[in-house]
Amino acid sequence: MSVNSPSLDSALSLPGGSKNGEARATALAASTLADLHPTRVISYRSQGNLLIVGPRSAVLGAAKGLSDRIHCILLVTDTSLDERDAVPRAGNRTVLAGAPESISGHLGRFSVLVKGPDRPIGLHELTASPRPYVDLVLDLSEPPAIASERKPPGYFAPGRDQAVLAQALAAIPELGGELEKPEYVLYDPEICAHGRSGIQGCTRCLDSCPSDAIRSVGDWVEVDPYLCQGVGSCATACPTGAMRYAYPRLEDLLERLRILMRVYREAGGESPSLLFHDGGEARARLERIVERIPDSVIPLEVEEIGNLGMDVWLAALAYGAGRVVLLGAPTVDRSAVAEIGRQVSYARTLLEGMGYPGGALSYVEQAGDEPLVDILAATEDCIRLEPASFAAMDEKRTVIHLALDHLHREAPKPRPLAILPDGAPFGEVWLNAERCTLCMACVSQCPGKALQAGDESPQLRFIEDNCVQCGLCARSCPENAIGPSPRYLFDGVQRRRVRVLKEEEPFLCIRCGKPFATQSVIQRILGQLQGHPGVGPEEMRRLRMCEDCRVKAMFETERPESAAASQEAP
């Protein structure tokens, strides 16, 4: 585990010779010259101590496959504590019997609790170890103690797959000492839409993370950099850009794409298709068909296919790619695949709303090589337009807007708006004006300032460009009068325009004449309290007063003699 430079070039030995092939080679070479901003390094420290947990036969069999130099704690789950002496001991081994209550942590710092008769017992208590952690875990239990889709670094759960077990046994001896990886994700709580005042809003990052590296902490979330493995689906799912992929940064990735497309055109290349893939199984598939990859197809290797989202795909099309193909693999995390599918559906709806073929963007996950060759050779969904020249930047929503603005200007059959699937990060809000009392609860919760109050009069204003469809407005409204409605308004001027959703005449204090509430709020309160046995005429009268006058009126009622004397004073 070490810091590798993220690639946005091709690791394949691509054929050349044709005009497009030569242009591809030139463009790929030029794009690698763009600088990449470094990111913080996350360090793990491991002494190589290993816990093997599971049934007796599986645990002992795995231990035999490891060198005696590796210190192992064998936790046998199908032998009682009274029978632990019957478990064979050998070499640098500590043998215990019991079942794990919980295992948590990461490489170099796994905390293990074992079920006890009265309470969970720390593994270090049973082994009399001064160190409360183990460095590595080989979990042969079914199901494993850690249920996350992508297991923490240093944790192996091969199940019954002997090939995966063999890979784990080969990797374990190498995981000692100090190991490093990049900090993949950066988080900006200031623009996060997770919650406000204890009301939960967006949970897209938590739902899409296969590593369980993100947790809710009140109105914000927290990313554990030691559990994060750079899948990137959190950044892809985030509607605001609060969660950003850090290595490479969006700005760096887009700059390489911009250079790539420009140099390809200048070198005489035509109808380019970008093929994004990772360096694992997807690259292996491409290596098998490399001689049959069309010269107009530019394979680009990225660390994780899940860390690319609408910002990258749409910008690539705007910069001049005829189409974008995302090559998945059966080993890609299912949560990441699900998020890719959602994002592709949003982007394709946007493209179709402008008259482009939705097939200009596709996610491919097929087992056979021949279907993949056919997909790469197809050109009917390629789009052709004058390339955009907007600068690369590290702001997700701005990039998407710039890309869509350019695509819309060049579009063959543009419509004014596109209705998007539920969950899309763009849209307006619906408002039931009869229910709305202009209490402004929604305004106080809106993270993007899409909902705003009037300056001097009771108004509810809305700026569609700022709305991320988090649903906080709906959850905070006491009258159930508002909610998100996903769509994309292509006209940027209209999208940024301030719209008045509702306004009322203010209610004026009956004593001093100062505006202090809306007509509907006061009338609703009066209607609810009308005839209430504990609310008399004087209380009803004070409800029509501002806060200052209400206090004065209460004081006068409680001390009428003092109030009368005060009024008679010269």
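The above is record 1. Record 2 follows with the same two-line structure.
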Amino acid sequence: MRRRLSPLAAALGSAAAVLLGALAADQWFQHGIEVTWRALHEDRVVEVDRTVEHRVAFPNQHRALGRYVQGWNFDAWGVPSHMPPLDARIRARITVPPGEPLLLRAESPNETDLLVDNLRANEPVPPGTHDLTVYWHGPLQPPGTVHWTRILPASLELTWGTDEESLEPVPPDAVSLPADTADPARAALWIGAVLLALLVGGAVFFAVGARSPASARRRAAALAGALLVLFAIGLRVYDYDVMPEFRENMDELFATWNGWQLLEDGTTRGWTLWPTRYTGWAEVERVEYFRERPISVVTPYFEHPPLFHVLVGAAAHAGGAKEYLHARLSDTRPVPIALGVLTLVLVLLVSRRLDARGPAPLLAGLLYATVPLIVIMNRVAKEEALLAPLAAGSILFFLRWRDDGERLRDLLLAAVLAGLCPLAKVPGLVFVPVLVFLVAQTGRWRAAAAAAAVALGVAALLLVYAAAVDWNAFWFVTRDQATIRSSSWDQFVPFFYDALINHNRVGRGWLVFLWIAFVAAALARSRNGMAALALPVVGYLVAMGLPSGSWHYGWYLLPVYPFLCIGAGSFLADLWEEPELLRGALFVLLPVAYAMTFLHDPEWVRSPWSNETMRRWVGAFVIAFLLPYGLVQLRRTRLSLLLARAGTAAALALVVALNAFFVIQYEALYETHHAQDDLTLCKTCEERGVTAPSPESGRGGSE
């Protein structure tokens, strides 16, 4: 009887835990503001968008920019030549706690008008619940601005206090939505919570009710993988239409524009940085898009292959775009997000192939799901978003072919996926010889020849596409793309330490750890096991690095991250099974300690007043987390092993929480910690009187 009831009890308990979590989240959803975003069009004020904001403060301009650009009605108002001024109306209910009346202010560098119960809030507001209205006005782009990433600060925060000197931020739980405002996010929360409770409850029922421990472990691992995928989706979807900001990487627009045009009439079109190079080869037009300086658009467009563009173009059509300029990132970014989640699944499957037992697959997936470099870049509509799952999928089917009886269908699928890589991005052609080499390494030469024939046959579709559009223009542009950038002996070095989210230099601690852990895990494997990880990474770095030369952007490493995470997952599994000081120090001092950086104001950290405090905090952190590894290194006992594993679990939980914090707060951290890796290096420079690099010095460009 107990054996029959225990799965049911576990399932009901798990489902109840999910619903209790949703109930706690619902408390947050009960608070927020309604914002109506307006603009002047043909001498009349139009409503651009109406949103519910559960974060009641605006730390900078990014959310406002996203609301205007992603909510703009292109069909009715056309494509604006510049960013309209900020004109927002904020409505809410605010509850003043019992006690003294409080002064209420809307702190902003812009113009604000604050009304309480439809009256100007000149006097202290008495305790109780009141209607709040704020009118928020100001420029989002000054005249003549041409830089893509740094615009004007446009922030707003509600404050209150007994007098002007005691003003402090209004807590979010004091602000709630107006009674006549519906919140679709709150309804979605409960629908998702019920579905998740059913999923988790059912999965736990089957896992606990398994007839053997091995079956129970497999089912538990499948459940953990499914929950990890859901967590990854949540992190990637949060603020996906706001950050990265739409001007930060213009390549997203040419992918979307070209894809829309391809599906519309079969022609190609995209913006370019070097229009003068196309003289005699292409038609160049100048178009306006939320900026005063027009953008150069060329037809035909060959700077990138069409496969990924077709996917985001289809999303733009589904979103209702009637012209290529009408495509919104809010419609097209779900495509790279879906591809990023697919890549996470492939990371779990490939890692399970290479580490059939133990926690390595889930640890690899946990890294891919939460490392902010990967999470935020997974939102970006770039060709590498498709190249990553194609490359990882090719390796997965190769491993299936190698390890499961050399089935022909697995080899053909591996070859087809490798052949599709150059249709996503030309350097992806390298995954064809990588696959052929891996197959040949097994001694199956006929199979290697078959894989080469199939993969090259699929890759040849790019040449068919080029011939159908403009053969001569294709070769001219492809040659120009591969040779326009300067080369140097050290051009590969940045791939190993220069972490970037688009152009923002941030994430060095995460990237360096992934590389070290990957190399350590790969070298610990057998020759064949190491090749399956190392060859795709080395091959792609060479293929990407040679033509890119001195240019380096955050999306370049997207096809490498799955393999780095697989290796790093194995590294962490080894740390769990055999704790020791060196591995523990690499984990604690690189990704964990680095993630702590974003809990502090960088201006304070770089000031002399922080030295003593920071030294105490950092010292206590390092001692607390490294001491268990030192003890197990000194003497391996049951207690020391238990302490070391507890320390590893604590460090894992901490880094996942900190990574999630970074992703959720990236709207604000983009400004406060912009180019953080450069600023960190220059703390001592400032102390010596040397000027640190400005956060304004981000690089622009296209690849």
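The first helix runs from residue 2 to 29.
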